């Protein structure tokens, strides 16, 4: 599963640390998400989508 | 934060105990003891690293544990369990073929379990865990 977290983060001018604090995870988790080395739980995907005011499918792309 | 401090405290206690053992028997240390001592130092270094990481996370205001770290721990526990099973089978096989005491065999098994856990954790922590 690919994602556009980095792109959205840049758009909202958020650092990895800021995003991690907003969704209550460690910075490493955001790093692994951006590198596509970890697929988030539905809750984390939902929380990230809420931070970026977008739909989950706009941020997380299957295939 | 609290868990990180506990990990560091346990690491310090292990280090002190190992130091006492090392200095009290420095005249009669066998090569097996030296290897055990080295492995204990490595395991303590691993514990210090884990404790330090937790403290840094706590200082940054992040949770000490999240879904990724829990998944890493779960996968580490599963893999190190499988590896430990094979390790004990191997030790049972070699126990009659080497001149080691029962305590030394047991010590090697326990240290081997600790090392397999540390190695698995490092691999999964730096490689990441994909949801299969």
**What percent of the residues of chain B sit in helical stretches (DSSP H or I)?**
over 70%
- Going across the major beta sheet of chain A, what is the strand order? 1-2
Number of β-strand runs of chain A: 2
Structural class call of chain A reads mainly alpha
Question: Can you walk through the features of this model?
Answer:
The complex is a heterodimer of chains A (63) and B (132). Chain A is mainly alpha-helical and 63 residues long. Chain A has a two-stranded antiparallel sheet. Chain A starts with a strand and ends with a strand. Chain B is mainly α and 132 residues long. In chain B, α2 runs parallel beside α4. The two termini of chain B are 31 Å apart. At the A-B interface, α2 and α3 of A face α3 of B.
Sum this structure up briefly:
The complex is a heterodimer of chains A (63) and B (132). Chain A is mainly alpha-helical.
List the helices and strands and how they pair.
The complex is a heterodimer of chains A (63) and B (132).
Chain A: E1 2-3, H1 5-11, H2 16-23, H3 27-34, H4 42-51, H5 56-59, E2 60-61
Antiparallel strand pairs in A: 1-2
Helix pairs in contact in A: 2-3
Chain B: H1 2-24, H2 31-59, H3 67-94, H4 102-127
Helix pairs in contact in B: 1-2, 2-4, 3-4
List its salient traits.
heterodimer; A: 63 residues; mainly alpha; 434 Repressor (Amino-terminal Domain); two-stranded antiparallel ribbon; 5 helices; 59% helix; 6% strand; B: 132 residues; 2 domains; 4 helices; flat
């Amino acid at each position: 599963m690919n994602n556009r977290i980095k792109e959205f983060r840049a758009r909202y001018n958020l650092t990895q640390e800021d995003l991690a604090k907003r969704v209550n995870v460690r910075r490493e988790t955001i790093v692994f998400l951006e590198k596509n080395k970890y697929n988030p739980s539905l809750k984390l995907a939902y929380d990230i989508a809420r931070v970026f005011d977008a739909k989950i499918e706009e941020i997380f792309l299957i295939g | 934060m609290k868990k990180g401090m506990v990990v560091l405290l346990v690491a310090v206690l292990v280090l002190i105990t190992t130091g006492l053992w090392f200095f009290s028997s420095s005249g009669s240390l066998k090569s097996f003891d030296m290897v055990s001592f080295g492995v204990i130092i490595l395991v303590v270094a691993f514990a210090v690293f884990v404790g330090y990481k937790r403290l840094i996370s706590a200082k940054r205001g992040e949770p000490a544990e999240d879904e990724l770290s829990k998944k890493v721990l779960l996968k580490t526990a599963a893999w190190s369990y499988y590896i430990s099973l094979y390790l004990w089978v191997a030790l049972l096989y070699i126990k009659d073929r080497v001149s080691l005491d029962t305590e030394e065999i047991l010590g090697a098994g326990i240290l081997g379990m600790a090392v397999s856990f540390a190695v698995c954790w490092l691999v999964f922590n730096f490689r990441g865990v994909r949801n299969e």
